[in-house]
Structure formats: structure tokens, C-alpha cells
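Two folds, back to back.
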Amino acid sequence: MTALHRLACAACFCLGLLALPSASAETLREYLMARGIDPEGVSGPNLDRAITSGDCLDEEGLFLTAYYLEHASGRLVGPIQVEMLDKKRRIWTHKEVEKGWDTCPGGGILNIRRTKTGFCWYGHINPSAGVTFILSPTLELLGCVLGSYRGDFADGTIVYANSLPHFAPTHPGELSLYNPNDKSDRKIYPMKPWQAVREGHIAKVRAAYDRLGQEWLREHNHHGDPDQFTSIIGDAVATNDATDSLAFIALFDNSETLDEAAPRHTKVVYIYRNMHTEGRIEYREILHDEVKSRFGDISLQELLEPKMLEVLFGDPS
């Protein structure tokens, strides 16, 4: 049993991942027709079976839905069922996706999306955890990660925000890269050595913990580690294949500094480059207000252009 399986199953056990049966459960046929999709020609065996906890991607030339068959136990039981329609050719494809997980297949399906090299979707386990399934254009399962999709590169590498323990004193956001081709999985945020903005925030959190005292930390079952402060990874990570770079926004939680005058969050921009070069990844950390002051209303994507990276990383012209 892999670590991913153990973590996902633990979350499933705690929550039950129930999809309670209904006397009038929706069938796949009804689900498709409600979304304006003609079910004629569906190649799979599930057209008139009750389904649950699914989602769909509806584009100009393609419709894709992933779902579970309703189970008598009320639980989400794999394999996950997938139907894909090539709208132009009117060709349906049916697949079953599983990782050998039986009653813990990854949670209710959300956010089916097209990636640069195929598809992915998110299996919701709890508000802090879930599994991202990565699939090829022909719906072959390429891999799974415990976390949520944030972006991707043309070689298939997925950028994802790591899932976190739901019941914990702090929630330190993390960002990782997963390459389904070689199964490599690397955490890239936070990355040492710390830079000035993060060091400054850690110092404030450390001072707050000192004020609270060791007795308070023990009573509240708190780790007391200022490095593990709460931060939130933005929903989208910009990527640039030509410059092998990415950018995202992190929100540092100021409530843990005990500074009532501070805004709720400190907004910080991170820019990384050399993402595919072993041992050469670099990053820059800049307050969002400073980015606006220096460059105006610039997007994360624009920060990844060659000239901007030269400025941000201080490259000689």
C-alpha cells in the first residue's frame, strides 16, 4: 500500500465518503439529457444505471463525464466510470479508472479539466484533502497525486497544491511537481533558503508564540513551529514552457502574528525558473504591492517572459 493510498484511505475512513442512495437516483441517460447531450451511441453498459458524485467537461468538440455507479452501501465504490464523446464524429468512448482502491477510490469528482497533454480531475475527500487523477487523451490513467491541480507543463508535468491534515493548528501551504512520465514527485514550495518576506513573517509568528508561551502551546496541542505558519496557495499557477518557469501567489495568514492592525493576509508573489533542470531551480519572492509598484497591473503570465525574468533574477543584460 502506497503512502498516497494510506493517506487517502485514512481520510475516507474518517469521513465515510457517503453518497446516500435515493429512490429517484439519476441515471446516466438522464444526466446526459439534462445537459443537452444526446445519449444515442453511448458505448458503455451504464446508460440506465443510477450514478452519483460525478462531474463533466463540456467543450465545443468534446464532452467528458466521470462518475460512480450508485452502490447499495451508500459509499463511493470504484472503479470510476468515464464516458467521452467526440462531438464532431459522434464517437463515444467508455473507460473504467481505478487504482485498486475498492471503497476508497478518491472521493466525489470535481473540476474535470483539459491539460496540455490530456485531462485531470479532482476527487474531493475533505475540505483540505483530495486526489488529482491525471489521464492521457485516450483516458489512460497516468498517475495520481494527493493534492489539487494548479497548472501544468507541455511535457505532462503537473503543478499541484499538496493536501493537508484537516484538523491541525496551522495549515502551511505546499506546492509540488509531479511528472507522470518518470513518476518523479518534488516539493518546490516552500523552498530553502528562505528569502526576506518569509523570514520576516516567521519572525513575527515566532514572537507571537513567545508571547503565548509554552504552557498555552501545550494546552492547545500546538506544534509551536513558526516555520509552519498558515499560508494559502492561489488557485492558478502560471507556467511558461519556453522559459521553463512558473509563478503563483501565496497568502500569508497574519492572524498568527497576533497583530490586530495587520491585514488578514500578506499577498506574496513567487516566481520560479529552471523547473526541469536538476539542482538549478531558482526562485524570487516579492510582495504583491511591490510588484504593482514596480511593474503596474502585470499578470503572473507576463512575469514569466524572458525580459521580465532577467529583471527579476538580476541577470546581466
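---
second:
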Amino acid sequence: MTDYRVPASSPPLSTRRFVSPLDISITASAEDTVVAVSGEIDLGVSDDLRRALDEELRFKPSALIADLSAVSFCDSSGFTVLVQIRAKAEEAGVPFILVTQERALLRPMALLGLDAVFTVHPTLDSARDMLVR
């Protein structure tokens, strides 16, 4: 696939797309790495999400942000991936932040008690603002 540029607070160090039925784009800068996901996260694609997040975590970014703003559905396999990545990020000392306002994600997270586990922001800007503090 073709690389493309995504605006960030500073010029991206790299921008990549991950080939998957799930649309995953990655933008890395000095401040953070954003893994933007769109589509539905289910058993068929959760391993793709895991690989993308694991790969970025190996680079030990200043912060790893999973932008799930365009995700319309997430099953238990997707939440399992997010919980596992959060644990790996914590072990590596890398802040892991979720971005979403989607009820389809927030409601199950609340029911599962994951709202107490994850740092969730409604927008990418608010997530980045939190990192600056």
C-alpha cells in the first residue's frame, strides 16, 4: 500500500498502513504513536489489531494511542487484545490510551468494568493534551 501523511502535532517520523480487513493506520511522531482503527473488531480481525499494537509497542513510543473513534463494534476478542496490550504497555512504561466516544465500545467497557482499567478520551486532541500535563 502507499504511505500517506497524517497531520500530527509535529511531523510524523513514520506513517504506515497495516494490511487487514480492519482498516489500521499508524502514525508515529516524537510525542506519540497513534494506531487509528476503523471498522468492526471481532474474532476474525482481533489478531491483526494485536500484531499492529504489539509491533508499535516494540518501538517503545513515548505514548501509544489506540484511536478507536471509527470502530463501530468490538467483541470480547477485541477487548482481550486491548487488555493484553495495556498490560504490556504498563510493563514497558509506555502510557496506553484509548480514544473513542462510541457507545458501541463505551457501554460494553462499562459493563465489563474496563472503564476503570483503561484511560479513555473522547478525542485525540484531549488524549494528547493529557500527555502534555
